[in-house]
Amino acid sequence: METKAENACFGGTQGVYSHRSEVCACDMTFGLFLPVEAKDGPVPLLWFLSGLTCTHENAMTKAGAQSHAAAHGIGLVFPDTSPRGEDVADDDDFAMGQGAGFYVNATEAPWKANFRMWDYVTGELPALLGEHFAVDLSRQSITGHSMGGHGALTIAMHMPETYRAVSAFAPMANTTDSDWGRPQLRAYLGDDAEAHARHDASRLVAERGFPGPMLIDQGTSDQFLDKLKPEALATAIATRRQEATFRMQPGYDHSYFFVSTFIEDHVDFHADALWS
Amino acid sequence: METKAENACFGGTQGVYSHRSEVCACDMTFGLFLPVEAKDGPVPLLWFLSGLTCTHENAMTKAGAQSHAAAHGIGLVFPDTSPRGEDVADDDDFAMGQGAGFYVNATEAPWKANFRMWDYVTGELPALLGEHFAVDLSRQSITGHSMGGHGALTIAMHMPETYRAVSAFAPMANTTDSDWGRPQLRAYLGDDAEAHARHDASRLVAERGFPGPMLIDQGTSDQFLDKLKPEALATAIATRRQEATFRMQPGYDHSYFFVSTFIEDHVDFHADALWS
Q1: B14 contacts A67? CB cut-off 8 A
Q2: Which of A9, A10, A261 is closest, CB to CB, to B9?
Q3: Pairwise CB contact (< 8 Å): B260 & A219
Q4: Which catalytic residues are annotated (chains A, B) (predicted)?
């Protein structure tokens, strides 16, 4: 593992590290914020999964999460959104290929050679963090934005024993019924409708739900509402009686100005679960 | 004036606007955050001047100032750091030309055609803001980072009737005795030593001081300490008995992780002065 940068930040350290990923068969880069408490022992860990076109860097520099994580003594990890590199498959569409891993394990060529973000985020990267950093893997929680909100929700519902709470900012909420989801799931996973359904947050809420708390924020002026389909998620939450807070935030769009406005609520929400 | 973007942000609006600048003889872009209170009338205004290579965007997206400005009901303006465009002079050195205006009015060719950031930031842009937005120009305050800290300090000390308080993050503190300052002041202003001295924060503290409060933060692990010369500013402050808080922050570097860590203190400091 290589240290790309370490900056003092809110009393702790904001680091950027790269490492060879066996799962993705390429070098991967991630950001990790550790509060000062990590000097004395392992701290709880909140995952932030980012959206289309993002790297590890966007949320790390724009979301403003570190101040609130420091206040609660919890760590933050910012993975990349896909495998990357000259030898990694890509596509002209920004919603496919590099920068658009959709947090699945691809089964179709050419994607299956590298695009295994599900296993990377849920297996290889947490193991690496546990080995090299003072993080307490028995206290994890997960959030994300847009495609990363989709990732957070779908991962948490499949692995409720691992994540104590889940939240999302403007998540892709109904991938099997959206231009942001259907074409990508078909490319990555083939024509297997059951496989697609395992990566649709609204369908997962309807079918299995999440045993912990869930927090969703969605701006009413989001320019991608027709692709995100929050109504499917709201319906599923209400129909299942899923423990959840679902907020439509008037006037907010899809940008990091939206994320940064409500990040304090989300970090507070996860800290409650992580420290309970 | 053209609206490039407006995003809901902490209950207010983060906007980006461009306009034809007569002073700089080119199009200029700036960011402006207005809290919700601006809907009911003019709000106080805090200027954030950025450093080398920055545009209007860096501090606007990375400093995390909006949450604190919203809490105090004050506006934030993020000007660009220089004139820009194909017809504007530039230099291969990132510390000279576009992205490196040093907040002076250039008198030397080729720079004098456009590089008039002093007049732009102190005259043309505030007038434009007063005309188009709900800002109270009788309540202004100023801060900045690195080259922008230099700009904030030098501007405030020359125009103490305009700015109620001044602060800086890792300012270029002694430009006439630094590789970040001396070559640029010579290029922009010629060999006029008195003109150079008017743009040296430490010399201005020694010679005239500032009638209001001053707050300086400097990281002890800043990679540019030899160019910033905080010791000159600390000496000048102490020698003059200037009202000031000068903080050396252990372990922090020159990055926006440093700025974001202490931005709350700075916005609180300015809000106290702006609302008194």
Answers
A1: no
A2: A261
A3: no
A4: 146 (charge relay system), 222 (charge relay system), 254 (charge relay system)
Q: Is B226 a catalytic residue?
A: no
Res A166: pLDDT: 98
Nearest Cβ partner of B8 from A10, A67, A252?
A252
Q: Where are the beta strands (DSSP E) in chain A?
A: 2-9, 12-21, 26-34, 43-49, 75-79, 135-144, 163-169, 214-219, 245-249
> Tens digits of per-residue pLDDT, A102-139?
999 999 999 999 999 999 999 999 999 999 999 999 99
Q: How close A12 gets to chain B, by Cα (Å)?
A: 10
The region that residue A42 occupies, defined by phi over 0 for left and psi between -120 and 50 for alpha, beta otherwise, is beta
Q: State whether B260 and A9 contact (CB < 8 Å).
A: yes
The pair phi, psi for residue B144, each rounded to 5°, is 180, 170
| Distance in angstroms (rounded) separating the CA atoms of residues A88 and A120 | 15
List, in order of start, the domains of chain A with CATH numbers: 2-274 (3.40.50.1820)
Strand pairing of A12-21 and A26-34? antiparallel
Helices (H) and strands (E) in chain A, counts: 11, 9
Could you report the per-residue pLDDT of A15-51, keeping only the tens digit for each? 999 999 999 999 999 999 999 999 999 999 999 999 9
Note whether ipTM > 0.90 here.
no
What are the backbone angles phi and psi of residue B244, rounded to the nearest 5°? -165, 150
The C-alpha of A187 sits at a distance from chain B's nearest C-alpha, in angstroms, of 34
Map tokens 């109270």 to a residue: B136
Q: How many angstroms separate the Cα of A109 from the Cα of each of A82, A187, B251? A: 16, 8, 47
